[in-house]
Design a protein that fits this description.
The chain folds into two domains: 34-154, Beta Polymerase, domain 2 (2-Layer Sandwich); 161-275. With 283 residues, it is α+β, with helices and mostly antiparallel strands. It contains twelve helices and four strands. It has helices at 42-56, 68-71, 93-109, 123-126, 135-142, 162-169, 172-185, 189-215, 222-232, 237-248, 256-262, 264-275, and strands at residues 60-66, 81-87, 116-122, 143-147. The longest helix is centred in the last third of the chain and has 27 residues, at 189-215. β2, α3 and β3 form a beta-alpha-beta unit.
Length: 283
């Protein structure tokens, strides 16, 4: 029995999830490592370390990479650079301005990445009970330590449970009105491309975590995520595959954003509530 009251057939590596991003005890294997960073992206990562040290100094508790670069699957000129910074205190407006300056500098200096994104959080929030199965899980399982003390040492081990599904992606129903508003306001090709990339990634990951406890494993690969989802919801499989393709090349699917927000997204939000319930509200 798992902490959220569901049966976990992956325990001790005997269930169907063994080898699907899990160790022999059925717990998540932390994905990514600095050793997997391709030589082509090594200068970008070095510049990131230098710039965040210069901008944040002693305010920085620790820093992490996540996404395709530390997984070793990044494509030069296509993939973006993703990093998370844990600050000793909650981030201020000045901190967010500094993060934007770092993002812009890296995006300008390196053609190897298609944009850079820095997430800022206070270390105490990342370790809090409220974030234990959301941001805490994200740091412990999907982030690769770059500098500073690793917060994962103070977090539990995780399994693919319904509790984890609920707390990571059980808020799509709350965010749908805002996403529709953003879509209506995105009138330029560049704005719609950015929003399409973000929305399609979110929908594919939400679709995957909807079925994650039943599948009994983990993957960050969007195409695989869509395929796994489709095994349990074949009637919606084609739409999820289209979303996964658009997440990689959003400019090639100019009309998909509105289609997803008007049909598949509301259905997915409702199904998520029925299966896993609503994510705990944040202050």
């Amino acid at each position: 029995m798992t902490p959220d009251g569901t049966h976990d057939s992956t325990r001790n590596g005997t269930g169907p999830g063994a080898g699907r991003g899990l160790d022999h005890d059925g717990c998540f294997v932390r994905e990514g490592s600095l050793e997997r960073v391709s030589p082509v992206f090594a200068p970008v990562v070095a510049a990131l370390r230098s710039r965040i040290a210069g901008h944040f100094g002693d305010r920085l508790h620790s820093s992490y990479l996540f996404g395709s670069i530390p997984r070793g699957t990044a494509v030069p000129g296509v993939s973006d650079l993703d990093a998370l910074l844990a600050l000793r205190d909650e981030p201020t407006d000045d901190d967010h301005a500094a993060a934007r300056a770092v993002e812009e500098a890296l995006d300008t200096a390196f053609r190897e990445v298609d944009g850079a994104g820095l997430l800022l959080f206070g270390a105490d929030r990342l370790l809090s009970d409220l974030e234990r199965h959301d941001l805490g899980w994200f740091v412990a399982c999907l982030c690769t330590p770059l500098d500073g003390p690793d917060l994962a040492d103070r977090l539990p081990r995780y399994r693919p449970t319904s509790l984890l599904a609920r707390e990571t992606n059980g808020d799509l129903f709350r965010d749908l009105p805002g996403l529709r508003t953003k879509a209506a306001a995105a009138t330029t090709e560049a704005a719609r491309t950015r929003l399409t990339r973000g929305v399609t990634r979110r929908l594919v990951r939400t679709g995957f975590t909807l079925v994650m406890p039943r599948w009994g494993g983990w993957t960050s690969d969007l195409a695989e995520s869509a395929e796994v989802f489709g095994r349990y919801y074949p009637a919606h499989a084609d739409q999820m595959r289209a979303a996964a393709r658009a997440a990689r090349t959003p400019a090639a699917y100019p009309h998909l954003l509105d289609e997803l927000l008007s049909g598949p997204a509301p259905w997915l939000a409702g199904e998520y509530l029925a299966v896993h319930g609503a994510k705990a509200p944040r202050p």
